[in-house]
Structure formats: structure tokens, C-alpha cells
TrEMBL record:
Domain Glycosyltransferase RgtA/B/C/D-like per the UniProt entry, residue ranges: 70-224
Any GO MF annotation of the entry: transferase activity
Transmembrane helix found in the keyword field: yes
Pfam families associated with the record: PMT_2
Annotated organism of origin: Dokdonella immobilis
Listed InterPro entries: RgtA/B/C-like
The protein, known as: 4-amino-4-deoxy-L-arabinose transferase
Bilayer-spanning residue ranges: 91-110, 117-139, 145-162, 174-200, 212-230, 242-261, 273-293, 305-324, 344-365, 377-398
Length: 561
């Protein structure tokens, strides 16, 4: 295996970089006219309550007690200040981040195997794969993209340290990984790959214990330091909501089983391939498998073995660090059944796909200019045959996902328009959006409206909900105690209740809609009903008893009143 140090140049290198960026934007272009959905609104609303964007570094900022992602929140704060609630620039930003991931992967693989052509092919396939496109299409996955960019840059410096033992490469590796962990905890998977880079002996330094291996202790120190900061910032409670549905062991076992069982369908796309695209995919895959078999029979030096072990470690650890969410999400998702499900689940395989790219780079290592002509033709033809179905499925996902977001956005835009006509200069402001029959809209309704409304000076005091329990409310700090009044009731977490999270000028408040409660009839309560594509004020009908309103707890039974 060649441990090349030359990076792609300014001639063919620039052309290839443009091709990779173009592939990303072409595959994603169908989503650019879409809107926000689910957590996107919460991530847009939170910065509007934050005057200091650095506050999340030392203060809890994500619902529950599981995640510490201050750098990701900082990026959302900046993008909200720059783009507001205009969705298109946010999609372009995600596409730019994916482009940086792809370029970083290309440069890393070129450095690892010394073959720019193979590195380009691997990066190109990754760029248009539905796992990458689906992850990027959901704007909330900006955390994942940012962490991947930083982690891949760190891996490049880690490989440099493996080859040179330069102190600068060591320090750069540690700094980039520390920043990556502050973007998203999945960076731990990329740290495991760097650990393999440094621990595995090389041809130049065959010993199992020298300065390079001892540097693994610095990787462990960075990770432990992040854990300590996370423990200091996040409360000791908060994960009870996560385990309200299933025990920790059940979540782990079912999550891991679901992740591995569904991996083939997400990786090979079979449920979404038709006759022609399926045939092209099979032919391309067979050609590359034949080439991989031929290349794998070559010499496996220590660098090549280290690379494939690092790729496998990245795949496995990326799956492990997501186990709470995979146990809740993947069990109920089936690739090909629904576009929204495909996009939502793609993030669970994103970093593992990076590990697969590294493993494939090890398999194809050494296929440089001296490679036989027929092998180069086979590699090019196999890649081209794969690109067609990959690009087709990714574009379909982007277009279909756009339609789903726009369907949900019609409720949001209509609600903002109707609420804009209300007199919100009242005490105990509560707004009820009823008759949408969309539990998903209701689950995120409060942050949805507060992300889109042009003026929060009065609306920030209001509790906005449908008939169903929302995920949480984001209100001004002074309004927190109102969550204890009917029809609201606290969300149970074991023997306790979920405490509000105070951050900036706002607070994340977790509450239920009590099923037996009567609707509030005070002057600060408004009821807007969904009729013929718009929300109509029916507050007077509710106050006079001509219309009834029932509430529902849309949570696990253990969390409901």
C-alpha cells in the first residue's frame, strides 16, 4: 500500500473537486425548494431566545439530558441570524457542509492510499448515495455534517502523525476532535479510527509500543475531558424520557439488531430499485466485487491493514454510540416504505458509511497508474453503473422529501397568518390550533410558530399547542409557572417530573395536555380551527359552549397523567 503524501493538485484536482461539489448539489437540488420540518423549527426558534451564542458551551441547550452539542447550536445561531426562516439558504448551507465532508473524504483517502483516481471514485459514490443525501436533506442533521467535516480533517492529521510523529499533527488532531465532539457525540466513532491509526504498527515502526501508540492516551484524554464537561453541563436527570418507552437493555439490544438488519437495505437500496436501475446496480456491484477480489489478493502491508481495521472500527462504533435512538427509531422504519422514514433514518448510517469508504479504500489500495488497463476499465465501468441508480434514488428522495415538508408547512404558514391577527397583549396567553388531525404538526407546533413568526415580543409569552401533547414549549422564562395550570400537566419521568430547561431569555417546558381537563375560557385563550386550508378563530364558539374541545396525551403511558 502506498502511503502517499501528495494531495490533489490544482489541475485535475480542481476539476475533480468541482465535480464532487456539483454532484452533491445536483443530487440535492430537488430539496432546495422545500421547507422545514420537525426539529428544524426548534433549532430555528432557540437562537431567537439566545443573546449570547456561546451560552450553550456551559449551559444545557438540548431537550432531555443526553446531548451536548454547543458548536452545532452556535452554527444554527449564526445561520438563523443570516437567513432567518428562509428555508432555501439553509438547504444550501447543508449542501455546502456535505460538499466539505466529501472533499475531506477525497483528500483523506488520497493521502491514505496514494491513488487520486480511486479516492475520487469513492468520494463520488459517497456524495450521491441516499445515505448522504437523506442525512443532508433533513436540516436538523447539520450537527452530523459539521462533526464529520471536523472528524475527517482530524483523521488526516492523525495519519500524518502516524507517518511523521510531528507534534503539530498531534495537536491538530486533538483540537479538531475536541471541536467535533462539541458538534456531535458521534465524533467518538472517528476517534476510534484515529486510535487504530496510532496503535497499529507500521513498516517504519513495527513495535507495538512507542511514542505513537502512547499518543493514544491523548485521544482518550480528549474524550474523557469532553465527558466531564458534558457531565458538568447536563443535569443528572433527563434521560428518563428516553427510557420511558423501553428499558436501557431492550433499547440497546433491539437498536443494535435493527441497525444491522436494516443496514443492507439502506446500503444497497434494493427496496427502491426498479428493473433497469436494479440491473445496473447489480452489474456495477458485480464488476467492483470482481475488482475488489483481485485487489485483495495483493500484498497487505501494515498500513493497509491499519486502514481496513480503522474503517471497520468506525462502522461499529458509529452504530454503538447511537443505540438509544436506534432502539426507538429504527425498529419502526423500513427503507423504501416511506420517503420521510428513509430521510429520518439515513443519519444513523452516515458515519458508518464513512467507515465503509475507508474500508473500501483499503481493499482497492494500490490500484495506481501501473494497474492493468482492463482493471482500470472495469473500475470505471463498475462505478459508472452504480452512479446511475444511486443518483436516481437520491433525487427521488430529495423531491419527495420536499413535498412532505411543504405539506407540513401549509399548517405552519396558515397558523402564523391567523395568529398575527390576534391581540396577544393579554394575560395568560394560550393559543390552541385544533382540527388539523396531524399529530406530527402538534408535536412541534409551539417551536414551529415561534421559528416563523416575524415578532416574538408578545408571542414569546404564549403557550401554543393543538389538542395533543407537544414535545415541548419554548417560552419566556417568566411564563414557566403557568405550565402547572390546567389543561396542562407535568410530564412524568419515573417518580419525578421533567424539569424545565432555562436558557437565555427562554425556557424549554415539558408538559402534557390533561385528557380530562376543560378548555380554558379566559380572555387570553384563543382557539383556531383548521377549515378549508386556513385557521379560523372559533374562540367565541368555545367560550359559549357551542363547540367542545378534547385533549389527548400523545406520549408513552408512563409519561401521561
Amino acid at each position: 500500500m502506498k502511503a502517499g503524501t501528495r494531495m490533489p493538485g490544482f489541475g485535475p484536482g480542481v476539476v475533480r473537486a468541482i465535480a464532487l461539489i456539483g454532484a452533491v448539489f445536483l443530487a440535492l437540488r430537488g430539496a432546495f425548494a422545500g421547507s422545514f420540518i420537525f426539529d428544524d423549527y426548534a433549532l430555528l426558534a432557540l437562537p431567537r431566545f439566545l443573546d449570547n451564542p456561546l451560552l450553550p458551551f456551559w449551559h444545557q441547550h438540548v431537550e432531555g439530558g443526553l446531548h451536548y452539542r454547543p458548536l452545532g447550536v452556535l452554527l444554527w445561531w449564526l445561520s438563523e441570524r443570516l437567513f432567518g426562516a428562509d428555508a432555501c439558504p439553509h438547504y444550501l448551507l447543508n449542501a455546502a457542509l456535505l460538499s466539505l465532508v466529501v472533499l475531506s473524504l477525497w483528500r483523506l483517502v488520497a493521502r491514505l492510499i496514494g491513488d487520486r483516481g480511486t479516492a475520487f471514485a469513492i468520494a463520488f459514490v459517497f456524495a450521491i448515495h441516499p445515505i448522504a443525501i437523506g442525512t443532508t436533506a433533513w436540516l436538523s442533521n447539520r450537527y452530523e455534517l459539521l462533526a464529520s467535516v471536523l472528524g475527517l480533517l482530524a483523521l488526516a492529521r492523525a495519519w500524518e502523525y502516524r507517518q511523521t510523529r510531528r507534534t503539530g499533527a498531534l495537536l491538530a488532531t486533538l483540537l479538531l476532535f475536541a471541536l467535533g465532539l462539541c458538534a456531535k457525540e458521534n465524533t467518538a466513532a472517528l476517534i476510534s479510527a484515529a486510535f487504530v491509526f496510532w496503535w497499529w504498527p507500521s513498516a517504519q515502526r513495527p513495535a507495538w509500543l512507542d511514542r505513537r501508540q502512547l499518543a493514544c492516551l491523548w485521544l482518550a484524554a480528549v474524550f474523557v475531558a469532553w465527558l466531564l464537561v458534558r457531565h458538568w453541563v447536563l443535569p443528572p436527570t433527563g434521560t428518563e424520557q428516553l427510557f420511558a418507552y423501553k428499558s436501557a437493555w431492550v433499547l440497546f439490544s433491539e437498536g443494535m439488531a435493527a441497525w444491522f438488519l436494516k443496514l443492507p437495505s439502506y446500503l444497497f437500496l434494493w427496496p427502491r430499485l426498479g428493473g433497469v436501475t436494479a440491473t445496473l446496480f447489480v452489474l456495477g456491484a458485480l464488476g467492483l466485487l470482481l475488482l475488489a477480489w483481485n485487489r485483495s489478493r495483493g500484498a497487505w502491508d501494515r498500513d493497509r491493514v491499519a486502514l481496513i481495521v480503522a474503517g471497520l472500527a468506525l462502522i461499529a462504533v458509529a452504530a454503538l454510540v447511537q443505540w438509544p435512538r436506534t432502539g426507538l427509531v429504527l425498529m419502526n422504519l423500513h427503507f423504501g416504505a416511506d420517503t420521510l422514514e428513509d430521510v429520518l433514518a439515513a443519519r444513523h448510517y452516515f458515519m458508518s458509511a464513512l467507515g465503509m469508504a475507508l474500508a473500501m479504500a483499503a481493499v482497492f489500495a494500490g490500484s495506481g497508474p501501473a494497474t492493468a488497463l482492463h482493471q482500470r476499465w472495469l473500475a470505471g465501468l463498475g462505478t459508472a453503473l452504480l452512479v446511475i441508480p444511486l443518483f436516481s434514488v437520491s433525487q427521488h428522495l430529495a423531491r419527495s422529501y420536499r413535498g412532505t415538508t411543504l405539506e407540513q408547512a401549509r399548517f405552519a404558514s396558515a397558523a402564523v397568518a391567523a395568529i398575527g391577527k390576534l391581540d396577544l397583549a393579554v394575560e395568560d396567553c394560550q393559543i390552541y390550533l385544533v382540527d388539523t388531525d396531524s399529530k406530527l404538526f402538534g408535536f412541534y407546533v409551539d417551536t414551529t410558530i415561534k421559528a416563523l413568526a416575524p415578532d416574538l415580543s408578545k408571542l414569546g409569552r404564549c403557550f401554543i399547542q393543538t389538542e395533543f401533547s407537544p414535545w415541548y414549549h419554548l417560552v419566556e422564562r417568566s411564563e414557566v409557572l403557568r405550565a402547572q395550570k390546567p389543561p396542562f400537566s407535568p410530564v412524568r419521568a419515573g417518580r419525578d417530573t421533567v424539569a424545565p430547561i432555562l436558557i437565555g431569555r427562554g425556557a424549554l417546558v415539558f408538559l402534557n395536555m390533561a385528557p380530562e381537563a376543560k378548555p380554558p375560557l379566559g380572555p387570553g385563550s384563543y382557539f383556531l380551527a383548521w377549515r378549508d386550508g386556513a385557521f379560523v378563530d372559533v374562540s367565541e364558539e368555545v367560550r359559549t359552549g357551542r363547540r367542545s374541545v378534547r385533549f389527548f396525551c400523545f406520549r408513552a403511558p408512563s409519561e401521561c397523567p
